[in-house]
Amino acid sequence: MSEHKFKIGQLVYFHPKGAVRPHLDAVPGPYQITKRLPAAEDGEFQYEIRNTLEEYNRVARESDLTRT
């Protein structure tokens, strides 16, 4: 991967693949990209995302996000 797929401010859906209980761990619905982060050790880009129903930001891998 050479550049980020998503832009700051863009709405995406978060689908955490590694979560044990994804239906309880992540609020459903759209998340907004708040920050682009550097690539992880495996080269996959990461993002800081936020759902309006939560009081904190999450970090998500690009493969866990899809366009709304």
N/C terminus separation? 21 Å
SS-based structural class?
mainly beta
Count every helix, treating DSSP H or I runs of 4 or more residues as helices.
1
Helix content: under 10%
> What's the overall geometry?
globular
Q: Low-confidence segments, ≥5 residues, pLDDT <50?
A: none
The run of helices and strands is: EHEEEE
Question: How many strands appear in the DSSP assignment?
Answer: 5
Q: Could you tell me the radius of gyration in angstroms?
A: 11 Å
Strand content: 35-45%
Mind summarizing the main beta sheet?
A: 5 strands, antiparallel
- Mean pLDDT metric: 88
Produce the secondary structure layout:
Blueprint lengths: L10 E4 L7 H4 L4 E8 L8 E5 L7 E4 L3 E3 L1
Antiparallel strand pairs: 1-2, 1-5, 2-3, 3-4
Structure overview:
- With 68 residues, the chain is mainly beta.
- Helix content is 6%, strand content 35%.
- The protein has one helix and five strands.
- It has a five-stranded antiparallel β-sheet with strand order 4-3-2-1-5, with no helix packed on it.
- A hairpin with an 8-residue loop joins strand 2 and strand 3.
- The longest helix is centred in the middle third of the chain and has 4 residues.
- It is globular.
- It starts with 10 loop residues before the first strand and ends with a strand.
- 15% of the residues are buried.
- The mean pLDDT is 88.
